[in-house]
Amino acid sequence: MRARLWNHLIVEVWMLNDVIKRAWATHDFKVKMLDWSGARGSRLAYTCRMCGRKFCLFTILNHSTWAVDGEGRALESAVSSRWLGENCPRLLNIGDDEDRKRLSKPPAQ
What we know:
The chain is α+β, with helices and mostly antiparallel strands. It has one domain. The chain is built from 3 helices and 4 strands; from the N terminus they run αββββαα. The protein has helices spanning 2-24, 77-85, 94-99; strands at residues 29-37, 41-48, 54-58, 65-68. Strands 1-2-3-4 form a 4-stranded antiparallel sheet. 11% of the residues are buried.
């Protein structure tokens, strides 16, 4: 039973990664290296020229990708997950402006 559940989870993760890869390929990104560390590798900022969505990732550390606002602050994981799973909307989206206000951590006062 456990092995069957584990295999099912592996298939779901593989399918999710495939969906994200296909959605990622619909964007027209410009890429900028923000900084580098020996432990995490390069931190890269990806900005789509068409829709304006921005993402960051580290090249070494677990290869996770997250959405960021205009200042590079991480957005809520729900926003990151949705944006990563959606194809590029090809235009600036008013709904994205609201999403960019949903920060993962509140700004310091």
